[in-house]
């Protein structure tokens, strides 16, 4: 293993890509701790020490920003506006025919869709930045902390803060694209990976201090089992055999080859979990904005808070149903059996024992439906691990070995290792991992 890593750094262009990626990551992590203009950094740290936040959606966004949200730093919005924009643009392909045409145009069309995603990212950053500043001004970000986070809330300072947060999101988006273009792996995914991984030491340290070494070692053992499960399922696929008929073009005979369509068990990746988590975080956010003047909650808000708590059985049940529903919804949007069947028919391909055309599309739909059910149950199980841990071990809701965090980290790690491995095999005929 260490000899393979040494070979990576002995390869000049691969070494340069890795060092460039590490440099961008270092800049990103430094920006997490630079406070936005107009923010009282000392008061923010004191409020963080009290440990009371709005939770819910903002705790979820804080996970993806590497802690920058609750630091109210220039990178407070993190990569979430870009993720949201990319998902929206992808879903709009079903609604707007022009977007679907751009998707089919190849590289030129993809470039236009990427540009639309950038514009939408900036718009969402403006909206989310304004919301965050409003929470910081009114005390909604840290309900139990009375210290002023923004001492001077004049219109000039507020506009400057909104501009700084939006510019920070734009800079993160640019850094992610630079990693993709000049570094190793997908830049946006790697920045998310770093944001989530940065919270692991503090989460594990909190578990050790509050629960002791026994629970700490138990969490490590559970984490290793979960990682093994996620790696196994993420690498699993259903291979549908495809046979191409022989064709004579001029004096050459082409075709006659056998291949397969790889259908992943988890085709939706982590998107359904993000959708479900975001929607179920809204009730807690609504409760935080409907407190009485004396700090108490109305009767309806208390009922909503009780039933929308992550430890509630109703929450877990609805969470599971949402994940299963969103998994089917997202797979139906991203995988079109009719389009795959038409492409196979166009190039003379067929599934052995299945007629070309509509029978092939029906067969693919049948296979994908069965695979999606297994993938949805797997996603629901992994997503419920932090909630179960919160009930059993009194661990933090952002339990490090489960939910979106472990799915994203394992997925990004596998993809990055594959890219490094492919580049090494081009030069040495030996990959990173033997």
UniProtKB/TrEMBL annotation:
Q: Which UniProt keywords apply?
A: Cell membrane, Membrane, Protein transport, Translocation, Transmembrane, Transmembrane helix, Transport
Give the record's membrane topology. Multi-pass membrane protein
Give me the segments passing through the membrane.
Answer: 18-36, 68-95, 116-135, 155-176, 188-207, 213-233, 270-289, 314-335, 371-393, 399-417
Record's subcellular location: Cell membrane; Membrane
A family per Pfam? SecY
Summarizing the function annotation, the protein's role is: The central subunit of the protein translocation channel SecYEG. Consists of two halves formed by TMs 1-5 and 6-10. These two domains form a lateral gate at the front which open onto the bilayer between TMs 2 and 7, and are clamped together by SecE at the back. The channel is closed by both a pore ring composed of hydrophobic SecY resides and a short helix (helix 2A) on the extracellular side of the membrane which forms a plug. The plug probably moves laterally to allow the channel to open. The ring and the pore may move independently.
Q: Which PANTHER family match?
A: SECY/SEC61-ALPHA FAMILY MEMBER
Which family does the similarity line name? Belongs to the SecY/SEC61-alpha family.
Quaternary structure note: Component of the Sec protein translocase complex. Heterotrimer consisting of SecY, SecE and SecG subunits. The heterotrimers can form oligomers, although 1 heterotrimer is thought to be able to translocate proteins. Interacts with the ribosome. Interacts with SecDF, and other proteins may be involved. Interacts with SecA.
Protein name according to UniProt: Protein translocase subunit SecY
The species this protein was found in: Glutamicibacter ardleyensis
